[in-house]
Amino acid sequence: MTQQVLAERFEQDAGPIAPRAHGTDWKIEAKRVAKIYPKPGSRSTKDATAVLDGFDLQIKSGEFLSLLGPSGCGKSTFLNILAGLETHNGGAVLVDGKRVEGVNKNVGVVFQGYALFPWLTAQKNVEVGLKIRGVPKAERRARAAKVLKTVGLEAAANRLPHQLSGGMRQRVAIARVLAYEPDILVFDEPFAALDAQTREFLQGELLRIWESGDTKKTILFVTHSIDEAIFLSDRIAVMTRAPGKVKTLFDIELPRPRDSDSRNSEEFAHIRSRVARVLEEEVHIGNDDH
Ligand SMILES: Nc1ncnc2c1ncn2[C@@H]1O[C@H](COP(=O)(O)OP(=O)(O)OP(=O)(O)O)[C@@H](O)[C@H]1O
């Protein structure tokens, strides 16, 4: 399909943005979002790949929602569109009822790589982002110290990244984003590179941090791990293969606070098998295409 044909198809927009009905509290709304990329390696604008098509999702304020889906279904693409780091070709993404246009400072992004400056201490790595945002020096110091304490790293504030474990580095990366005080946090497979034990520890830490705030932040978490998604989330959205859209939403009604008993519960195993079935269907259909 040519890029133009795809673009025309996606012109069927999200429709007018109606005022929100009384009582609804969507922090994030994605309406019929579409994204096309030129084919990798192709210089021709005629070749295009639809990555997202008809992607609909609503997330409540203070909700923890995980996105699961086959590789390449557009999870990171949606996350980047929400953060304003990537454009889209159709539909609309709204935060607090307003269209996302350009980089959204209300969205903090934590990626898999820690992206820390190796020559700066943990404290300075957190401060540097605030400096770029024009926060005065004394406030930078205070905010960095506070968020390092929140992530349990106050004793490591003066260490350089190479003096920290992988898990500690990822906590510095989380602290750096928390320091901006965004309403929304998005995570793109943040724990994928860590060993299983550290990963489970950080999942618990992330819930502790999320639950300890005065106001719970809204979290969108991209992962490949069904167990991680269940342990963390209020809801899981499973996507179709590309062009991706939300296929099934699961409510995760495990009681909070969650701990290792939650992971070993019958309810957890039951949800895992339901989510796995839906996800496997998509992966199998994708494989049958080849
Ligand atoms: N800048 C880009 N230019 C061209 N194609 C891209 C670009 N970014 C992503 N893509 C393609 O879009 C598709 C979706 O990518 P995306 O990273 O959003 O998927 P994903 O679901 O996060 O995948 P994974 O689970 O493997 O990380 C992939 O086929 C990818 O190659």
Keywords, please?
Rossmann fold, 22% strand, transport, 290 residues, nucleotide-binding, six-stranded mixed β-sheet, alpha/beta, 10 strands, single chain, four-stranded antiparallel β-sheet, binds adenosine-5'-triphosphate, 9 helices
Helix-strand layout with pairing:
Layout: H1 3-10, E1 26-38, E2 48-60, E3 64-68, H2 75-82, E4 90-95, E5 98-99, E6 107-110, H3 122-132, H4 137-150, H5 166-179, E7 184-188, H6 196-212, E8 218-222, H7 226-232, E9 235-239, E10 246-251, H8 260-263, H9 266-288
Helix pairs in contact: 3-4, 3-5, 4-5, 7-9
The protein binds adenosine-5'-triphosphate.
How is the main sheet built?
6 strands, mixed
CATH topology: Rossmann fold
Are any ligands bound, and if so which? Answer: adenosine-5'-triphosphate
Give the name of the CATH architecture: 3-Layer(aba) Sandwich
Distance between the termini: 18 Å
What strand line-up does the widest sheet have?
Answer: 6-7-8-3-9-10
GO molecular function, one term: ATP hydrolysis activity
Pfam families: ABC_tran
Keywords: ATP-binding, Nucleotide-binding, Transport
Domain ABC transporter: 28-266
Write a short abstract of this structure:
The chain is an alpha/beta fold.
